[in-house]
From TrEMBL:
The lineage of its organism: Eukaryota, Viridiplantae, Streptophyta, Embryophyta, Tracheophyta. InterPro entries: D-isomer_2-hydroxyacid_DH, D-isomer_2_OHA_DH_cat_dom, D-isomer_DH_CS1, D-isomer_DH_NAD-bd, NAD(P)-bd_dom_sf. SUPFAM superfamilies: Formate/glycerate dehydrogenase catalytic domain-like, NAD(P)-binding Rossmann-fold domains. CDD domains: HPPR. GO terms for molecular function: glyoxylate reductase (NADPH) activity; hydroxypyruvate reductase [NAD(P)H] activity; NAD binding. Residues 207-347 form the D-isomer specific 2-hydroxyacid dehydrogenase NAD-binding domain. One of its GO terms (cellular component) is cytosol. Belongs to the D-isomer specific 2-hydroxyacid dehydrogenase family. This is Hydroxyphenylpyruvate reductase. Transmembrane segments: none annotated. Residues 11-378 form the D-isomer specific 2-hydroxyacid dehydrogenase catalytic domain. It comes from Apostasia shenzhenica. Keywords: NAD, NADP, Oxidoreductase, Pyruvate. It comes from the Eukaryota.
Length: 379
């Protein structure tokens, strides 16, 4: 495919870039100024038949219109929400993505985020790095109390006082039963006065094993997450567009009900008109003060404004996020919270998976040039 003109819209993966530049005629257009973009397109657009992008830089209608010779778009991702698929259909432009090979990576990360958030691993890591760990008592694992958070200055403001009474007020019958379980019994914040002189806010952290986990979107990744959760003895339920009766998991047609019954809610759906802001205030309130939200889907699946409010007002227990609505921008308020784990969209970034994704992009381009069926067509 030596003569294939390929436009790489951002630095994606070194191996992919090297292979593209070895096998094709490679053009790079990374974050250009409007002027530079114009000059570049004037000089090169007629030669560009293929575009390679990712989940951040896709191909919107403007980009597609600016490339009159464009015949195929390849995205280094399973998600295609940054590509104007309708426009591609109209113009007969083919689109491929990289499904399946990244499923394990994202599912691993979802479980990692759930545990990391529930057990506040980043706060504990920060405690150790800050030099505050002077004796084992500082980090009282034996009593299941991590009394480090306010005392050691890791959290800037104390979390809201919560009592088991307030927790119980949330519930209907099902919920009250859940609260009665041993893992919930000790869940309450201690007021500063309870730990005289120490100014300590103690938080007994919940166990992950055996938790009720709700999955939003039981596609390839959601199913892989559910499989992993079996090993932790979790009770898995899910919400998706349609019920999957063979899955063996409890289906909720109403996402608020799913959130209400879940200790951890994991978002693993794609971004569509139906799933934009599917995690809204009602869902967050149903998830509740002890609930943890994990998002490995798309940032805009979650109403970030509402999430920030729910976290800062103590209406939701924590969040583990690999994706954000306006990447790489992250809501500033999240940065000051210790009950969140924030990752820069690294769901698929293991070396093994990146290599397979790159090879899949290359194989699709080879097939396209040779007029063979595409391996992973979207359009
Ligand atoms: C994808 O490939 O679409 C995902 O965003 C990876 O995290």
């Amino acid at each position: 495919m030596n003569s294939l003109g390929v436009l790489l819209t951002c630095p994606i993966d070194t191996y992919l870039e090297e292979e593209l530049s070895r096998r094709c005629k490679l053009f790079r257009l990374w974050e250009p100024s409007p002027e530079k973009r114009k000059d570049f397109l004037r000089a090169n657009a007629p030669e560009i038949r293929a575009l390679v992008g990712n989940t951040v830089v896709g191909a919107d209608a403007g980009m597609i219109d600016d490339l009159p010779a464009l015949e195929i778009i390849a995205t280094f991702s399973v998600g295609t929400d940054k590509i104007d698929l309708e426009k591609c259909r109209e113009k007969g432009i083919r689109v491929i993505n990289t499904p399946d090979c990244l499923t394990d990576d994202v599912a691993d990360l979802a479980v990692g985020l759930a545990i990391g958030t529930l057990r506040r691993l980043c706060a504990a890591d920060g405690f150790l790095r800050s030099g505050a760990w002077k004796s084992n008592g500082d980090y009282n694992l034996c009593s299941k109390f991590l009394n480090i958070i306010v005392a050691k200055g890791i959290q800037s403001s104390p979390p809201r006082w919560r009592s088991s009474e307030a927790v119980l007020k949330r519930g209907n019958e099902e919920h009250r039963e859940r609260e009665g379980r041993e893992i919930y019994a000790p869940l309450m914040w201690l007021r500063e006065s309870d730990r005289e002189g120490e100014g300590i806010c103690a938080l007994p952290l919940p166990l992950f094993s055996g938790k009720q986990v709700g999955i939003v979107g039981l596609g390839r990744i959601g199913s892989a997450i559910a499989n992993r959760l079996q090993a932790f003895g979790c009770q898995v339920s899910y919400h998706s567009r349609t019920e999957k009766p063979l899955s063996g998991y409890k289906y909720y047609s109403n996402i608020v009900d799913l959130a209400f019954s879940s200790d951890v809610l994991i978002v693993s759906c794609s971004l569509t008109d139906e799933t934009r802001y599917i995690i809204n205030r009602d869902v967050l309130d149903a998830l509740g003060q002890q609930g943890v939200l994990v998002n490995v889907g798309r940032g805009a699946n979650v109403d970030e404004r509402e999430l920030v409010l729910a976290l800062t007002e103590g209406r939701v227990g924590g969040a583990g996020l690999d994706v954000f609505e306006h990447e790489p921008d992250v809501p500033k308020q999240l940065l000051g919270l210790e009950n969140v784990v924030l990752l820069p969209h690294v769901g698929t970034s293991t070396s093994e998976t990146c290599k397979i994704m790159a090879d899949l992009v290359l194989a699709n381009l080879e097939a396209f040039v040779q007029n063979k069926p595409l391996l992973t067509p979207v359009v």
